[in-house]
Design goal:
This is Ribulose-phosphate 3-epimerase. Pfam families: Ribul_P_3_epim (PF00834). Keywords: Carbohydrate metabolism, Cobalt, Isomerase, Manganese, Metal-binding, Zinc. The chain is an alpha/beta fold. The chain has one domain: Alpha-Beta Barrel (TIM Barrel), CATH 3.20.20. The chain has eight helices and eight strands; from the N terminus they run βαβαβαβαββαβαβαα. Strands 1-8-7-6-5-4-3-2 form an eight-stranded parallel beta sheet. Helix 2 links the parallel strand 2 and strand 3. The protein starts with a strand and ends with a helix. The model has no long low-confidence stretch (mean pLDDT 95).
Length: 218
């Protein structure tokens, strides 16, 4: 199966955001990955509803919204209204994860759970049947351009085994440090969705770079 490619808008040129989104529309990208950071859950601040709404005006691809925020349950409906098609919350930020996932699904969006590099796959055993997407962080969340964490391959394999054992269709998304060297290995380990930020937007030809990732198979 060909992977889903989700370029991270956080790595785009904010001064030319419309043209960057229009470029992604022309590309083979499947989703637009939108990182929301609150300066509390992670040590950085990105953007919120006004920027999301501006992106939505021009985006022709589904918006994959990654909430790196505390108390995400307070904002689920607003992110959906702002254009989110996939809403991913961090396991580490949710006191009542099942309730939050049901809240996301009630809006009509796909429900995702993100895990930090230190968080065990085992914590998903009681919730995996309710999850549409698991986003494995392959860097520590909060900043782009970090070095890929090699233990990610093992976590993908463990997660894939859990998904198969429960007979569910949950997608495995990898976020952080994805490039042409590790992308084939990630897919061979069982990944379905690749988030690529700097690798795409810093390349000489982002459309070609996305197409090259799309040619890979798992």
């Amino acid at each position: 199966m060909r992977p889903l490619i989700a370029p991270s808008v956080l790595a785009s040129d904010f001064a030319n955001l419309q043209s960057e989104v229009e470029m992604l529309n022309r590309s083979e990208a499947d989703w637009l990955h939108i990182d929301i950071m609150d300066g509390r859950f992670v040590p950085n601040i990105s953007f919120g509803f006004p920027v999301m709404e501006a992106i939505k005006k021009h985006a022709q691809k589904p918006m994959d919204v990654h909430l790196m925020i505390v108390e995400p349950e307070l904002y689920i409906e607003r992110f959906r209204a702002a254009g989110a098609d996939v809403i991913t919350v961090h396991l580490e930020a949710c006191h009542h994860l099942h309730r939050t996932l049901q809240q996301i699904k009630a809006t009509g969006a796909k429900a995702g759970v993100a895990l930090n590099p230190h968080t065990s796959i085992n914590l998903l055993e009681d919730i995996i049947t309710d999850v549409d997407v698991v986003c494995l962080m392959s860097v520590n969340p909060g900043f782009g351009g970090q070095k890929f964490i090699e233990n990610t391959y093992r976590k993908i394999e463990a997660l894939k085994n859990l998904i198969i054992s429960r007979n569910v269709d949950t997608l495995i998304e990898i976020d952080g440090g994805v490039n042409k060297q590790n992308a084939p290995l990630l897919l061979n380990s069982g990944a379905d969705v690749l988030v690529a930020g700097n690798f795409v937007f810093s390349s000489e030809d982002p459309i070609r770079t996305i197409a090259d990732l799309k040619k890979l198979s798992n």
